[in-house]
Amino acid sequence: MSLQQGLETYLTELWGAPTTVANLARIPGGASRETYRFDALVDGRSRGLILRRDPPGGLLETDRRLEFLAFKTVHGHVPVPEAIALEEGDSALERPFFLMERVDGGVVPSPFVVLPYGDHAQALGEQFFATLGRLAALNHEGTPFREAAPEPALDDCWRVALDHWSDVIEADELHPQPIVRAAIRHLRRNPPPPAQRISIVHGDYRTGNFMHDGQGAILAILDWEMAHLGDPLEDLGWACDPLWNHFDDTRVGGMIAPDQALATWEAASGLTVDPAALAWWSLFNAVKGQAIWTSAAKAYRDGGFTDPVLAISGWYTARRHDLILADRLAALEAF
Amino acid sequence: MTPALSDILRGNFLSLAIPAPVESQGDFMTGKVAVIALLSLLAAQEAERGSQSRVWENAAIAALLRDAAATYGPDLLAVADTAAEDLSIPALDAANATLRRGLIALHEAVEAAGDLPRHRSIIALYGQMAQARRLDLPPLPAG
After folding, report:
1. Contact status of A114 with chain B (Cβ, < 8 Å)
2. What residues in A contact B134, CB-CB < 8 Å?
3. Do A114 and B127 touch (CB under 8 A)?
4. Choosing a second label site near A313 at 20 to 30 A (CA), which of A180, A216, B46, B67?
5. CATH label of the domain that carries residue A48
6. How far is B37 from chain A (nearest CA, A)?
């Protein structure tokens, strides 16, 4: 059965009405899930949908249920498409998947192009960090996300996160990496202050993971596959990582000055940015990045060298993060 | 450090040679070809600089290990004597792995001893290593 036929069968059963699928096409982006756009024709109308299906081997072992529940939880608070259905078995489309509404009319620039936002950079930067602040402030008690996301203690967020990503490096490393290992040891010796609150952390909140309309408005925050509960400074540090600055050292995400980004985030979140805590999470995020790229390199090899996105992640971005890590380590006063 | 240059070039061939299902043509294939093009450009840089950067890094780590041996033990001398069997990238990488493992062990010992001057010299070497291995993207316009 083709993917199109599988979708038609699934949606006909889901909606209890004959459904046909048209314009099915895989779209770029998302190394951890295969992403497809299509139109579902049901009851005389067309619905634009997105399919996110587990790949045979992906960049990260991420929890599709958590991603689906994150969409359900933040919808209405943060611009995201509406989640439609989650299928955790492999009978319908060979692998687990979920469906969501499609947001049309937007663009998602690559993080490795220059000046992607033109005259709208400032406006998009303000929205980008205000949105992240609202996510940090979101009350998640009793939400769908809490059905599946473990909640760390305030003073344990850093350890949970660092253990997770250092374990990834330990498991997937194919060549010794002294720079990231030095950073991990520094982070363990110098833990940050406890989190101010436990928030939903997007996990990959950065330029390249949001869609805008080309006129200065953010349409959707995408790729929630690494969402979890933790210290909201984790997302802030990742969003401000130099890897995502579009080769512009004066603006985070290629959009907005660093002090404006932090002030916008503070105003929207009601939280304050402790510079020492943010410094810890910034170094941590370079470690996290290197862990992701380490996994990408392993997945590229294990997958028979057929996914060029895994290649560029495991190679170019890994070397960028070695540079960032070395710079951050050199700036530290002590061990 | 991985994938190796040969992995990248082999992968570029496979990515283009394996037929894509009909739903993966169009925008997805356009994006895939763009990434393959970038990989080819970076592969040219690695072909030009890869051997030289590895030869330099291996020598730099070996020198640092030899310098530390008087304080941190003669075992470091044996590691520092690790030599690549030839100048191929796989041979240089094999030696590099041994040298890097020695460097990691030395750095851990330096931290445990509170030896700040040597810690700083190791951190400085990390910066040089990262610079020597850097890959440079051209300024790609959006859109």
Report:
1. yes
2. 319-320, 323
3. no
4. A216
5. 3.30.200.20
6. 10
Residue A308 domain-assigned (yes or no): yes
What number is the ipTM of this complex?
A: 0.96
Q: What is the DSSP secondary-structure string of A206-239?
A: STTSEEE-SSS-EEEE---TT-EEE-THHHHHHH
Does pLDDT of A59 surpass 60? no
Q: Is B17 on the interface with A (CB under 8 A)?
A: no
pLDDT at A1: 85
> Which residues, at least 6 apart from A123, have a Cβ–Cβ distance to it below 8 Å?
A216, A217
Closest chain A CA to residue B23: A25
Look at residue A33 and tell me if it is in a domain.
yes
Residues 6+ apart with CB under 8 A from A118: B142
Q: Are residues A238 and A267 in the same domain?
A: yes
Q: End-to-end CA distance of chain A, in Å?
A: 59
SS3 content of chain A, % helix, strand, coil (to 5): 45, 15, 40
Cβ contact B23–A326 (<8 Å): no
Chain-chain contact of A319 with B142 (C-beta, under 8 angstroms): no
Residues in chain A closer than 8 A to B133 (CB atoms): 319, 322
pTM higher than 0.90, yes or no?
A: yes
pLDDT in tens, A116-154: 999 999 999 999 999 999 999 999 999 999 999 999 999
Instruction: Please check whether residue B97 touches A, CB under 8 A.
Output: yes
Asked if A314 lies within 8 A of B140 by C-beta distance, the reply is: no
Whether B103 sits inside 8 A of A178 (CB atoms) is yes
CATH classification at residue A161: 3.90.1200.10
Q: Are strands A45-53 and A83-87 parallel, antiparallel or unpaired?
A: unpaired
Place of tokens 């916008």: A264
